[in-house]
Design a protein that fits this description.
317 residues, mainly alpha, 2 domains, two-stranded antiparallel sheet
Length: 317
């Protein structure tokens, strides 16, 4: 009887299962509204509207171009809100280019059914590379990490930590592994240099770091499938960011490191295979017992597996 109830619980409709992206959109939207009206972020309301409408339009066009079964705006909204919080430029064409790169790379650069780069990360990095080139003499694009203030930082931190509890399906292990590795490296460096404790704490009071930790590196569609692979990936990104910032003395070490080591995720998946993540919380990990949709003659267990495989054919979230 207990086993039967457990099976029925696994087969509940998709609309009854929470989607972690809804909480993420709510958190990012709240921070953007607070930043626009209280903190005077270096972005106007029309510019934010332009970014959000552009990413949604490009997402819709890509959905039609790649002939996907339905248009899903949630991932595009997360990317657009993150761009509103991070990207700064005075050029409207650069905004449009960045939004297009952010969404198109999710569809075009893929490996084994996953997009390789985090959309927001690769969009921002591409703009920094483009506008930092000696062949580019027009407007510049940059990242504005120090615009939050203590109140917004700690409020955002609490919301992000709450998201880890509410949305456990988001593979928060990579978030824990990254923040532990990065904190360890930062505090060890300060200890080795005999710096006051306030210095590493000040380095960590950065809203961009929170945005990176809870919304970029933790993206389940761009992280390794196996847990051990995600822990290794998180340490590589943390060490890469540390090396870029404190050895090469370059800014935006987190963004550069994630863009670099994202290209190693297919290798990690090949060495350490694991189940792919799906936003519907079932994916390939849990069978569905609606065996009537799988086969009319197969046994319930076989039909459940067939139905689950059928659901995994939807290519892009």
């Amino acid at each position: 009887m207990i086993e039967r109830l457990s099976q029925l619980r696994l087969a509940r409709p998709a609309f009854l299962r929470p989607d972690p992206r809804v909480y993420q959109i709510a958190v990012l939207s709240s921070l953007l509204i607070y930043g626009l009206f209280v903190l005077d972020f270096e972005i106007t309301i029309p510019r934010a509207a332009l970014i959000l409408s552009t990413v949604l339009l490009v997402q819709y066009l890509c959905t039609k171009l790649w002939k996907l079964p339905q248009f899903d705006p949630k991932s595009a909204l997360i990317s657009g809100l993150s761009l509103c919080l991070l990207l700064r430029t005075n050029s409207i064409p650069l905004v449009l280019i960045c939004c297009t790169i952010t969404i198109v790379t999710k569809f075009a650069i893929r490996w084994n059914g996953k997009h390789v780069f985090n959309p927001t990360n690769i969009g921002v990095v591409a703009m920094i590379l483009l506008t930092g080139s000696p062949f580019w003499s027009a407007e510049r694009a940059w990242v504005s990490p120090g615009q939050w203030g203590n109140v917004a930082f700690f409020a955002f931190l609490m919301m992000c930590l709450g998201g880890l509890v509410v949305n456990r399906a988001s593979r928060s292990d990579v978030t824990y592994a990254f923040i532990a590795s990065y904190l360890g490296l930062i505090f060890y460096r300060s200890y080795w240099l005999n710096e006051p404790f306030a210095i590493p704490l000040h380095r960590l009071e950065n809203g961009a770091l929170l945005l990176f930790t809870f919304f970029m590196i933790s993206d389940p569609k761009t992280t390794p499938n196996a847990r051990l692979g995600r822990i290794i990936f998180a340490f590589l990104v943390a060490y890469g960011a540390y090396y870029i910032q404190f050895k090469l003395f370059r800014t935006n070490g987190l963004l550069w490191s994630l863009a670099l080591f994202s290209m190693f995720v297919p290798i990690i998946d090949w060495i350490l295979p694991g189940p792919k993540y799906r936003w519907d919380a079932l994916g390939v990990r849990k069978p569905c017992l609606r065996y009537g949709e799988g086969s009319q003659t197969a046994a319930p267990e076989q039909a459940a597996v067939m139905y689950s495989r059928k659901r995994t054919e939807i290519p892009i979230s």
